[in-house]
Amino acid sequence: MSSRTSRGIAYERLPCEDGIDTAREGSLDSDIASQNAVHDEFSDRQRVEQSLLRKVDLRMSILVLIYVLNYIDRNNAAAARLRGFEDDLHLEGQQFNTILSILYIGYTLMQVPSNMYLNKIGRPSIYLPTCMAIWGFISVLTGTTKGFLGALCTRFFLGFVEAAFFPGALFLLSKWYKRRELGQRTAILSCGIMISNAFGSLLASAILDGMDGIMGFAAWRWLFYIEGSMTICIAICAIFILPDFPNTTTTSSWLTTEEQALAQLRMEEDVGEDDETEFSKGEGESGLRQAFSDWKVWWLALAMASLNVLLSFNAFFPTLSATLGYSSTVSLLLCSPPWLFATRVAFLMSRHSDATGERFGHIVVPILVGIAGFMMAMATMNTAVRYLSLFLMAQSYTAFVVYWAWASNSIPHPTSKRAVALAFINAFSSLGNIIGSYVWPKAWGPSYWNSYAICIGCGALCIIMSWIFRKHLMRLNQEIEAKKTEGGLSKDFTYLL
Q: Which of 34, 38, 325, 343 sits a CA distance of 20 to 30 A from 196?
C-alpha cells in the first residue's frame, strides 16, 4: 500500500486505490478516501472540536469589547450634545448633523481596501488593534477641537480608521466558524452596538455629571479624553489576544497541531473546497471583480442601507429620550434599559435563527415590532407610551444582527470574494447612516413625526427586498438539490433562508 498526504493529514491508500489517476483529485473515489482518512485522523473529533471552539470563542470574545468601544467613540457626540458640545463649538443649523454624517464618508471609503489588505497580510491580531489605537487617539483629539472645522476633520478621520474593524471582524469570524455557527457569533459581536448604547449612556452620564470644570475643561471634552484613552488601552491588550487566520504560523502557538488541522478542515467541509483550490477555480479572477459582478452583493447592500436608515434613531437616542421631559442626566440614564432589553432579544433571536437555520423571519419580525414602536411614538406625546416605544425601536436592531449572519452565509466562498463583499456591503449600507443623520433635525422635534414616517417607509422597503432575496435563494437551493453539487460546493451545502 502507498501512503499519501491530503490537506496535511497522512493516511494509507487501499490497494484498489493505487491505480487511480492522480490527476482526478475531484473524483468520488478520492473524496471517499479523503473522508475515511479524516475519520481515522480525528477518531475523537468531537472532543478536539469542542476544545478548538472553546479556545477560539475565548479569544474572539474581545471583539465584543472592541465593538463596544468602537460605537462609544462613534456615538459620544450625541451624548456630548446634551452638555454644551454645540454651544462651545458655535454650531449652527445642520452643522451638528454634518459632523455626524461626515464620519460615514470616511467609513464608506476605507472598508473595501481595508478588508482586501487584511486578506492579503493575514494578520488581524496586528492590523485591527493598530487601527483601534489610532481611532482612540483621534477620539481624544476630538475633545481638543475649538470649532466646526476641527470637529469635522476629526470625525472624518475617525470614520476612516474605524472602517477597518467591523468588516474585518466579520471576515475573521467567517474564517473560523461554520455557517451554522456563524449566526450566533455574529449576533454576539453585533450586540456590542446595543451594549455600547446601554453602558455608554451610563458612562457618559457619570463623566458629564462629575467631570465638568475639572482642570478647566468642559465635561463633554472629558468625555472624549476618557473614552478615547480607554480605547487605546484595550487596543494594546488586543494585540496579544486576537487570533490570526487558521492557516497562519502564529496560530500554532495557542492551538495543538490536531486542532489547527481541524480548524482548516472544518472550513473546507463547510463550503466544499479550500483556499488553495478556490484560486485555481476562479481562474485568477480577483475577489474584487467576483464580488462586484454578483448581484446578490449589491442587493444585500441596498437592503441593509434601507435598514440603516430605519436604525438611524440610534445616533439620536439621547435626543429622543430627552423629549420625555427629564434632565440631561436622567435622559442618559433612561437610554440604558431599552438597549439592555434589545441585547437580550437579539441574543435569543439569533440563537434561535441558528438552531432553525432560518433567517428571513428572524429579520422581518423585529422590523415589524420596531415599526409598531414608531407608530406609537407618532400617535402620542404621553411619557409612558413614548418610553415604551423606545424599547420596541431598540429591539429592531435584532434585524441588523441576523442580517449580517445571512449576508455571510449567502457568500460562502472564495474567501477573497467574501472579504470584499462583506466590506462593500457594510460600506454601501453606511450610506443609510449618512442619510439617517439628516432624518432627525431639531425642527421636527419634539414629536419627530416625519422622522418616524421615513423610518417606517425604509423598514417596509427592507422587508420587500428581503422577501425577494429569499425567493432567489430558494430557487438556488432547488438547483443545488437537483444537481447535488454546484460550483465546487459540498453536497450538503444549501443557502440558509
A: 325
CA-to-CA separations, 479 to 137, 296, 300, 482, in angstroms, rounded? 51, 17, 21, 5
What percent helix, strand, coil does the chain show, rounded to 5?
Answer: 75, 0, 20
User: What is the amino acid identity at position 346?
Assistant: A
Question: DSSP letters along 167-183, please?
Answer: HHHHHHHHTTS-HHHHH
Secondary structure of 53-104 in the HEC alphabet? HHHHHHHHCHHHHHHHHHHHHHHHHHHHHHHCHHHHCCCCCCHHHHHHHHHH
270, 495 contact by CB (below 8 A): no
Nearest to 372, CA basis, from 452, 440, 447, 463: 452
How far apart are the C-alpha atoms of 43 and 349, rounded to whole Å?
Answer: 34
Q: How far apart are CA 370 and CA 363, in angstroms?
A: 11
Q: Other CB atoms closer than 10 Å to residue 464's CB: what's the count?
A: 12
Give the model confidence (pLDDT) of 79-99 as tens digits.
888 888 988 999 888 899 899
pLDDT of residue 396: 94
Q: Which residues pair with 6 in a beta bridge?
A: 9
Q: Average pLDDT, whole number, for the chain?
A: 83
For the question of whether the overall pTM of this predicted structure is more than 0.85, the answer is no
Torsion angles phi and psi, residue 360, rounded to 5: -55, -50
Helix ranges (H only) for 211-256 are: 219-238
Cell 495557542 locates to: 254
Instruction: Please provide residue 284's backbone torsions phi and psi, each rounded to the nearest 5 degrees.
Output: 80, 0
Q: Give per-residue pLDDT as tens, 317-332.
A: 888 998 888 887 888 8
Q: Any residues with CB less than 8 A from the CB of 434 and at least 6 apart, and which? A: 101, 104, 105, 108
Contact between 263 and 176 (Cβ < 8 Å) = yes
Picking from 110, 105, 103, the residue whose alpha carbon sits closest to that of residue 76 is: 103
Q: Is the separation of the CB atoms in 303 and 465 below 8 Å?
A: yes
What does the alpha-carbon distance between residue 495 and residue 413 come to, in Å, rounded to a whole number? 12
Task: Please tell me the distance from the alpha carbon of residue 241 to that of residue 63, in angstroms, as a whole number.
Answer: 10
- Cβ atoms of 19 and 29 within 8 Å: the answer is no
CA distance 355 to 344: 17
Q: Dihedral through CA 211, CA 217, CA 220, CA 226, nearest 10? A: -70
User: Are the beta carbons of 437 and 456 closer than 8 angstroms?
Assistant: no
Asked whether the bond before 446 is cis by omega within 30 degrees of 0, the reply is yes
The helix (run of H) or strand (run of E) holding residue 9 is strand 9-12
Instruction: State pLDDT tens for residues 281-309.
Output: 443 356 778 888 889 999 999 999 999 99
Q: What pairs with residue 10 in β-bridges?
A: 5
The span from the CA of 318 to the CA of 335, in Å, is: 7
